[in-house]
Write a structure and sequence with these properties.
It is built from 13 helices and twelve strands. By secondary structure, the chain is α/β, with parallel strands linked by helices. It has two domains: 197 residues, Isopropylmalate Dehydrogenase; 152 residues, Isopropylmalate Dehydrogenase (3-Layer(aba) Sandwich), CATH 3.40.718. It has a twelve-stranded mixed sheet, sandwiched between helices. Bound molecules: nicotinamide-adenine-dinucleotide and 4-hydroxy-L-threonine-5-monophosphate. InterPro entries: PdxA (IPR037510), PdxA_fam (IPR005255). Pfam families: PdxA.
Protein backbone atom coordinates (compact mmCIF):
# COMPACT_ATOMS: atom_id res chain seq x y z
CA UNK A 1 0.00 0.00 0.00
CA UNK A 2 1.29 3.53 -0.82
CA UNK A 3 2.08 5.44 2.37
CA UNK A 4 -0.19 8.43 3.12
CA UNK A 5 1.13 11.74 1.70
CA UNK A 6 3.21 13.92 4.03
CA UNK A 7 2.06 17.46 4.79
CA UNK A 8 4.57 19.93 6.20
CA UNK A 9 2.98 22.31 8.72
CA UNK A 10 4.97 25.51 9.27
CA UNK A 11 4.16 26.72 12.77
CA UNK A 12 4.31 30.43 11.92
CA UNK A 13 5.01 33.40 14.16
CA UNK A 14 6.36 31.92 17.41
CA UNK A 15 4.66 34.55 19.59
CA UNK A 16 1.29 33.85 17.98
CA UNK A 17 -1.22 31.02 18.19
CA UNK A 18 0.42 28.86 15.48
CA UNK A 19 2.51 26.65 17.82
CA UNK A 20 -0.40 25.87 20.14
CA UNK A 21 -2.76 25.18 17.22
CA UNK A 22 -0.23 22.60 15.97
CA UNK A 23 -0.26 21.03 19.43
CA UNK A 24 -4.07 21.02 19.55
CA UNK A 25 -4.24 19.38 16.15
CA UNK A 26 -1.88 16.59 17.20
CA UNK A 27 -3.60 16.13 20.55
CA UNK A 28 -7.05 16.25 18.92
CA UNK A 29 -6.43 13.18 16.79
CA UNK A 30 -8.94 10.51 17.80
CA UNK A 31 -7.11 7.82 19.81
CA UNK A 32 -7.34 4.53 17.91
CA UNK A 33 -9.56 6.18 15.26
CA UNK A 34 -9.48 5.38 11.56
CA UNK A 35 -6.16 5.81 9.74
CA UNK A 36 -5.87 9.43 8.56
CA UNK A 37 -5.36 10.05 4.85
CA UNK A 38 -2.11 11.96 5.43
CA UNK A 39 0.93 12.22 7.67
CA UNK A 40 1.77 15.51 9.31
CA UNK A 41 5.15 16.95 10.27
CA UNK A 42 5.48 20.31 11.99
CA UNK A 43 8.31 22.64 10.99
CA UNK A 44 9.54 24.75 13.88
CA UNK A 45 11.40 24.82 17.17
CA UNK A 46 10.74 21.59 19.11
CA UNK A 47 11.30 23.22 22.53
CA UNK A 48 8.87 26.01 21.68
CA UNK A 49 6.23 23.49 20.61
CA UNK A 50 6.72 21.47 23.79
CA UNK A 51 6.57 24.57 25.98
CA UNK A 52 3.41 25.92 24.31
CA UNK A 53 1.71 22.51 24.48
CA UNK A 54 2.48 22.34 28.20
CA UNK A 55 1.27 25.91 28.72
CA UNK A 56 -2.16 25.01 27.35
CA UNK A 57 -2.29 21.70 29.22
CA UNK A 58 -1.81 19.33 26.28
CA UNK A 59 0.24 16.19 26.77
CA UNK A 60 2.24 16.05 23.59
CA UNK A 61 5.11 13.82 22.57
CA UNK A 62 7.41 15.75 20.24
CA UNK A 63 9.39 13.49 17.90
CA UNK A 64 12.33 15.28 16.28
CA UNK A 65 13.04 13.81 12.86
CA UNK A 66 16.56 13.69 11.49
CA UNK A 67 17.13 14.49 7.79
CA UNK A 68 15.92 11.58 5.67
CA UNK A 69 14.04 9.93 8.56
CA UNK A 70 10.53 8.89 7.40
CA UNK A 71 7.53 10.75 8.81
CA UNK A 72 5.52 8.29 10.92
CA UNK A 73 1.75 7.82 10.56
CA UNK A 74 -0.38 10.32 12.53
CA UNK A 75 -1.00 9.25 16.12
CA UNK A 76 -2.97 10.83 18.93
CA UNK A 77 -0.76 13.04 21.10
CA UNK A 78 2.33 12.70 18.90
CA UNK A 79 3.81 15.51 16.80
CA UNK A 80 6.74 14.74 14.48
CA UNK A 81 8.90 17.82 13.89
CA UNK A 82 11.50 18.92 11.39
CA UNK A 83 13.51 21.08 13.75
CA UNK A 84 14.33 24.72 13.04
CA UNK A 85 15.77 26.54 16.09
CA UNK A 86 14.40 29.87 17.28
CA UNK A 87 16.89 32.73 16.98
CA UNK A 88 15.85 34.30 20.31
CA UNK A 89 13.74 33.23 23.30
CA UNK A 90 10.04 33.86 22.72
CA UNK A 91 7.14 34.78 25.00
CA UNK A 92 3.59 34.17 23.83
CA UNK A 93 2.02 37.40 22.65
CA UNK A 94 5.31 39.33 22.42
CA UNK A 95 6.75 39.89 18.96
CA UNK A 96 10.52 39.93 18.48
CA UNK A 97 12.02 40.87 15.09
CA UNK A 98 15.01 38.64 15.91
CA UNK A 99 12.75 35.66 15.15
CA UNK A 100 11.61 36.90 11.73
CA UNK A 101 14.42 34.97 10.02
CA UNK A 102 13.31 31.84 11.88
CA UNK A 103 9.78 32.16 10.46
CA UNK A 104 11.12 32.48 6.92
CA UNK A 105 13.50 29.57 7.49
CA UNK A 106 10.57 27.29 8.39
CA UNK A 107 8.95 28.24 5.08
CA UNK A 108 12.16 27.64 3.14
CA UNK A 109 12.58 24.24 4.81
CA UNK A 110 9.01 23.23 3.92
CA UNK A 111 9.27 24.46 0.32
CA UNK A 112 12.53 22.56 -0.12
CA UNK A 113 10.84 19.42 1.23
CA UNK A 114 7.96 19.79 -1.23
CA UNK A 115 10.34 20.34 -4.11
CA UNK A 116 12.46 17.34 -3.11
CA UNK A 117 9.37 15.12 -2.88
CA UNK A 118 9.74 14.67 0.91
CA UNK A 119 6.36 16.35 1.36
CA UNK A 120 3.28 16.41 -0.87
CA UNK A 121 2.06 19.75 0.40
CA UNK A 122 2.56 22.68 2.70
CA UNK A 123 0.14 24.02 5.33
CA UNK A 124 1.05 27.33 6.93
CA UNK A 125 0.10 28.60 10.39
CA UNK A 126 -0.08 32.40 10.54
CA UNK A 127 2.90 34.69 10.49
CA UNK A 128 3.07 38.37 11.38
CA UNK A 129 3.81 40.50 8.31
CA UNK A 130 4.75 43.70 10.13
CA UNK A 131 7.40 42.13 12.37
CA UNK A 132 9.02 40.52 9.33
CA UNK A 133 9.08 43.92 7.63
CA UNK A 134 10.48 45.52 10.78
CA UNK A 135 13.27 42.95 10.81
CA UNK A 136 14.45 44.31 7.47
CA UNK A 137 12.68 42.13 4.90
CA UNK A 138 11.47 45.21 3.08
CA UNK A 139 9.52 43.59 0.26
CA UNK A 140 7.72 41.00 2.41
CA UNK A 141 3.93 41.19 2.14
CA UNK A 142 2.75 37.67 2.99
CA UNK A 143 3.12 33.94 2.42
CA UNK A 144 1.40 34.12 -0.96
CA UNK A 145 3.89 36.47 -2.53
CA UNK A 146 6.88 34.92 -0.72
CA UNK A 147 5.98 31.45 -1.99
CA UNK A 148 5.38 32.78 -5.51
CA UNK A 149 8.93 34.14 -5.55
CA UNK A 150 10.46 31.13 -3.78
CA UNK A 151 8.92 28.84 -6.41
CA UNK A 152 9.69 31.13 -9.35
CA UNK A 153 6.00 31.26 -10.30
CA UNK A 154 5.04 34.12 -12.62
CA UNK A 155 1.64 34.64 -10.98
CA UNK A 156 -0.39 33.10 -8.18
CA UNK A 157 -3.95 33.53 -6.93
CA UNK A 158 -5.03 33.86 -3.32
CA UNK A 159 -8.34 32.10 -2.78
CA UNK A 160 -10.21 31.50 0.48
CA UNK A 161 -12.94 28.89 0.67
CA UNK A 162 -15.38 27.86 3.35
CA UNK A 163 -15.43 24.27 4.51
CA UNK A 164 -18.73 23.56 2.80
CA UNK A 165 -17.32 24.85 -0.48
CA UNK A 166 -14.25 22.69 0.01
CA UNK A 167 -15.97 19.45 0.70
CA UNK A 168 -19.51 19.84 -0.61
CA UNK A 169 -21.07 18.58 2.59
CA UNK A 170 -23.15 20.22 5.26
CA UNK A 171 -20.79 21.70 7.82
CA UNK A 172 -21.49 21.14 11.47
CA UNK A 173 -21.20 24.86 11.95
CA UNK A 174 -24.67 26.19 11.08
CA UNK A 175 -23.63 29.67 10.00
CA UNK A 176 -21.34 28.48 7.26
CA UNK A 177 -22.19 29.01 3.61
CA UNK A 178 -20.46 27.60 0.55
CA UNK A 179 -18.17 30.24 -0.82
CA UNK A 180 -14.87 30.53 -2.66
CA UNK A 181 -13.40 34.00 -3.00
CA UNK A 182 -10.27 34.76 -5.03
CA UNK A 183 -8.53 38.13 -5.09
CA UNK A 184 -7.34 40.15 -8.07
CA UNK A 185 -5.01 42.14 -5.80
CA UNK A 186 -3.74 40.95 -2.42
CA UNK A 187 -1.64 42.82 0.11
CA UNK A 188 -1.65 46.21 -1.53
CA UNK A 189 -2.51 49.63 -0.13
CA UNK A 190 -6.00 50.62 -1.32
CA UNK A 191 -4.54 53.70 -2.99
CA UNK A 192 -2.61 51.43 -5.41
CA UNK A 193 -5.40 49.00 -6.20
CA UNK A 194 -7.03 50.69 -9.19
CA UNK A 195 -3.73 50.91 -11.08
CA UNK A 196 -3.00 47.24 -10.35
CA UNK A 197 -6.27 46.04 -11.90
CA UNK A 198 -4.99 45.66 -15.43
CA UNK A 199 -6.24 43.51 -18.28
CA UNK A 200 -2.99 41.53 -18.25
CA UNK A 201 -3.25 40.76 -14.53
CA UNK A 202 -6.94 39.80 -14.75
CA UNK A 203 -6.20 37.55 -17.71
CA UNK A 204 -3.41 35.70 -15.89
CA UNK A 205 -5.42 35.33 -12.69
CA UNK A 206 -8.63 34.16 -14.33
CA UNK A 207 -6.78 31.57 -16.41
CA UNK A 208 -5.16 30.20 -13.23
CA UNK A 209 -8.45 30.28 -11.31
CA UNK A 210 -10.31 28.45 -14.08
CA UNK A 211 -7.57 25.83 -14.51
CA UNK A 212 -7.08 25.21 -10.78
CA UNK A 213 -10.79 24.95 -9.98
CA UNK A 214 -10.81 22.12 -12.51
CA UNK A 215 -7.56 20.54 -11.34
CA UNK A 216 -7.79 20.76 -7.57
CA UNK A 217 -11.49 21.12 -6.88
CA UNK A 218 -12.94 18.82 -9.54
CA UNK A 219 -15.16 21.52 -11.06
CA UNK A 220 -15.70 20.46 -14.68
CA UNK A 221 -16.65 23.87 -16.09
CA UNK A 222 -16.11 26.60 -13.51
CA UNK A 223 -18.54 29.49 -13.46
CA UNK A 224 -16.80 32.53 -12.02
CA UNK A 225 -18.48 35.74 -10.91
CA UNK A 226 -16.26 38.80 -11.32
CA UNK A 227 -16.76 41.91 -9.16
CA UNK A 228 -16.54 45.42 -10.47
CA UNK A 229 -14.04 47.75 -8.83
CA UNK A 230 -16.23 50.79 -8.27
CA UNK A 231 -19.58 51.22 -6.52
CA UNK A 232 -22.36 49.70 -8.64
CA UNK A 233 -19.70 48.42 -11.03
CA UNK A 234 -19.03 51.99 -12.13
CA UNK A 235 -22.68 52.97 -12.76
CA UNK A 236 -22.25 52.95 -16.53
CA UNK A 237 -19.01 54.94 -16.32
CA UNK A 238 -20.36 57.68 -14.03
CA UNK A 239 -18.66 56.28 -10.91
CA UNK A 240 -15.42 55.06 -12.48
CA UNK A 241 -14.40 53.71 -15.86
CA UNK A 242 -12.33 50.60 -14.99
CA UNK A 243 -15.31 48.32 -15.62
CA UNK A 244 -15.88 49.68 -19.14
CA UNK A 245 -12.26 50.12 -20.14
CA UNK A 246 -10.48 47.21 -18.42
CA UNK A 247 -12.65 44.56 -16.80
CA UNK A 248 -15.46 44.07 -19.34
CA UNK A 249 -13.20 43.80 -22.43
CA UNK A 250 -10.89 41.38 -20.59
CA UNK A 251 -13.79 39.13 -19.62
CA UNK A 252 -15.10 39.22 -23.18
CA UNK A 253 -11.73 38.10 -24.54
CA UNK A 254 -11.51 35.28 -22.00
CA UNK A 255 -15.02 34.10 -22.85
CA UNK A 256 -13.61 33.62 -26.33
CA UNK A 257 -11.14 31.13 -24.78
CA UNK A 258 -14.05 29.18 -23.29
CA UNK A 259 -14.11 30.55 -19.73
CA UNK A 260 -17.55 31.00 -18.13
CA UNK A 261 -17.49 34.45 -16.55
CA UNK A 262 -20.25 36.71 -15.25
CA UNK A 263 -19.43 40.34 -14.71
CA UNK A 264 -18.29 42.85 -13.94
CA UNK A 265 -21.07 42.75 -11.34
CA UNK A 266 -21.71 45.20 -8.48
CA UNK A 267 -19.93 43.59 -5.54
CA UNK A 268 -22.60 44.47 -2.99
CA UNK A 269 -25.34 42.46 -4.64
CA UNK A 270 -23.10 39.80 -6.17
CA UNK A 271 -22.62 38.40 -2.66
CA UNK A 272 -26.28 37.42 -2.28
CA UNK A 273 -27.63 33.86 -2.37
CA UNK A 274 -29.38 34.24 -5.73
CA UNK A 275 -26.21 35.27 -7.54
CA UNK A 276 -23.98 32.85 -5.69
CA UNK A 277 -26.30 29.86 -6.16
CA UNK A 278 -24.70 28.56 -9.36
CA UNK A 279 -21.25 30.08 -8.98
CA UNK A 280 -18.09 28.08 -8.33
CA UNK A 281 -16.01 31.09 -7.27
CA UNK A 282 -15.98 34.86 -7.04
CA UNK A 283 -13.09 37.05 -8.15
CA UNK A 284 -12.99 40.17 -5.96
CA UNK A 285 -10.88 43.12 -7.05
CA UNK A 286 -9.23 43.72 -3.68
CA UNK A 287 -8.64 42.18 -0.25
CA UNK A 288 -11.38 43.88 1.73
CA UNK A 289 -13.96 43.66 -1.03
CA UNK A 290 -13.96 39.87 -0.85
CA UNK A 291 -12.53 38.64 2.43
CA UNK A 292 -14.92 40.27 4.92
CA UNK A 293 -17.80 38.46 3.19
CA UNK A 294 -15.94 35.14 3.26
CA UNK A 295 -14.93 35.56 6.89
CA UNK A 296 -18.47 36.60 7.90
CA UNK A 297 -19.75 33.43 6.25
CA UNK A 298 -17.17 31.03 7.62
CA UNK A 299 -14.44 32.42 9.92
CA UNK A 300 -12.81 29.50 11.68
CA UNK A 301 -14.19 27.03 9.13
CA UNK A 302 -12.43 28.28 6.00
CA UNK A 303 -9.01 27.86 4.46
CA UNK A 304 -6.74 29.91 2.26
CA UNK A 305 -5.17 28.27 -0.77
CA UNK A 306 -2.52 29.56 -3.17
CA UNK A 307 -3.37 28.63 -6.75
CA UNK A 308 -0.79 28.66 -9.53
CA UNK A 309 2.13 27.32 -7.48
CA UNK A 310 4.03 24.20 -8.50
CA UNK A 311 3.19 22.81 -5.04
CA UNK A 312 0.15 22.40 -2.78
CA UNK A 313 -0.16 25.21 -0.21
CA UNK A 314 -3.03 25.92 2.13
CA UNK A 315 -3.34 28.07 5.22
CA UNK A 316 -5.68 29.27 7.93
CA UNK A 317 -8.29 31.99 7.53
CA UNK A 318 -6.99 33.98 10.51
CA UNK A 319 -3.88 35.73 11.76
CA UNK A 320 -1.49 35.41 14.67
CA UNK A 321 -4.08 36.44 17.31
CA UNK A 322 -1.39 37.70 19.71
CA UNK A 323 -4.16 38.56 22.17
CA UNK A 324 -5.00 34.85 22.56
CA UNK A 325 -1.53 33.29 22.29
CA UNK A 326 -0.43 30.88 25.01
CA UNK A 327 -3.88 30.62 26.58
CA UNK A 328 -5.29 27.59 24.77
CA UNK A 329 -8.49 29.39 23.80
CA UNK A 330 -7.83 29.84 20.07
CA UNK A 331 -10.04 27.84 17.72
CA UNK A 332 -8.08 25.20 15.73
CA UNK A 333 -11.01 24.77 13.28
CA UNK A 334 -9.51 26.61 10.34
CA UNK A 335 -6.18 24.81 10.67
CA UNK A 336 -8.04 21.49 10.58
CA UNK A 337 -9.84 22.62 7.40
CA UNK A 338 -6.54 23.76 5.85
CA UNK A 339 -4.93 20.38 6.60
CA UNK A 340 -7.94 18.50 5.19
CA UNK A 341 -7.87 20.59 2.03
CA UNK A 342 -4.13 20.09 1.53
CA UNK A 343 -4.57 16.33 2.00
CA UNK A 344 -7.36 16.31 -0.58
CA UNK A 345 -5.26 18.34 -3.02
CA UNK A 346 -2.25 16.09 -2.46
CA UNK A 347 -4.38 13.05 -3.30
CA UNK A 348 -5.71 14.74 -6.44
CA UNK A 349 -2.14 15.76 -7.37
CA UNK A 350 -0.98 12.17 -7.05
CA UNK A 351 -3.72 11.07 -9.45
CA UNK A 352 -2.64 13.55 -12.16
N1 LIG B 1 -2.21 33.05 7.02
C1 LIG B 1 -1.55 34.04 7.63
O1 LIG B 1 -0.34 33.98 7.82
C2 LIG B 1 -2.31 35.26 8.12
C3 LIG B 1 -3.68 35.41 7.88
C4 LIG B 1 -4.31 36.57 8.33
C5 LIG B 1 -3.59 37.54 9.02
N2 LIG B 1 -2.26 37.33 9.22
C6 LIG B 1 -1.44 38.29 9.99
O2 LIG B 1 -1.73 38.17 11.37
C7 LIG B 1 -1.42 39.40 12.02
C8 LIG B 1 -2.56 39.81 12.92
O3 LIG B 1 -3.68 40.09 12.09
P1 LIG B 1 -5.11 40.58 12.58
O4 LIG B 1 -5.01 41.08 13.99
O5 LIG B 1 -5.66 41.44 11.54
O6 LIG B 1 -6.01 39.27 12.54
P2 LIG B 1 -6.12 38.02 13.53
O7 LIG B 1 -6.86 36.99 12.75
O8 LIG B 1 -4.83 37.65 14.12
O9 LIG B 1 -7.05 38.53 14.71
C9 LIG B 1 -8.33 39.11 14.46
C10 LIG B 1 -9.30 38.72 15.59
O10 LIG B 1 -9.66 37.35 15.42
C11 LIG B 1 -9.35 36.60 16.58
N3 LIG B 1 -8.86 35.30 16.16
C12 LIG B 1 -7.92 35.06 15.21
N4 LIG B 1 -7.68 33.75 15.09
C13 LIG B 1 -8.49 33.13 15.95
C14 LIG B 1 -8.70 31.76 16.30
N5 LIG B 1 -8.04 30.75 15.71
N6 LIG B 1 -9.61 31.48 17.27
C15 LIG B 1 -10.29 32.48 17.86
N7 LIG B 1 -10.14 33.79 17.58
C16 LIG B 1 -9.24 34.11 16.64
C17 LIG B 1 -8.28 37.39 17.31
O11 LIG B 1 -8.26 37.12 18.68
C18 LIG B 1 -8.70 38.83 16.99
O12 LIG B 1 -9.72 39.23 17.87
C19 LIG B 1 -1.11 40.40 10.90
O13 LIG B 1 0.28 40.51 10.73
C20 LIG B 1 -1.72 39.75 9.67
O14 LIG B 1 -1.12 40.16 8.48
C21 LIG B 1 -1.60 36.21 8.80
N1 LIG C 1 -5.02 37.84 3.31
C1 LIG C 1 -5.04 36.70 4.15
C2 LIG C 1 -6.16 36.78 5.14
O1 LIG C 1 -6.62 37.87 5.41
O2 LIG C 1 -6.56 35.76 5.66
C3 LIG C 1 -3.76 36.62 4.93
O3 LIG C 1 -3.23 37.86 5.22
C4 LIG C 1 -2.84 35.57 4.60
O4 LIG C 1 -2.01 35.87 3.56
P1 LIG C 1 -0.80 34.95 3.21
O5 LIG C 1 -1.31 33.56 3.10
O6 LIG C 1 -0.34 35.48 1.93
O7 LIG C 1 0.19 35.12 4.31
Amino acid sequence: MTPAPVLALTTGEPAGIGPELAAMLADGMPAGGGAPDHRLVAVGDPALLAERAAAIGRALEIVELAPGQPVPPRRHGVLPVWPVPLAAPCRAGVLDPRNAGYVLETLDRAVAACRAGEAAGLVTAPLHKAVIREAGHAGFTGHTEYLRDACGAEEVVMMLATDHALHGRDPAWQGSAALRVALATTHLPLREVADAVTGERLTRLLRILDADLKRWFGVAKPRILVCGLNPHAGEGGHLGREELEVIAPTLEALRGEGLTLDGPLPADTLFTPRHLADADAVLAMYHDQGLPVLKYAGFGRAANVTLGLPLVRTSVDHGTALDLAGRGVADPGSLAVAVALAAEMARRGLRH
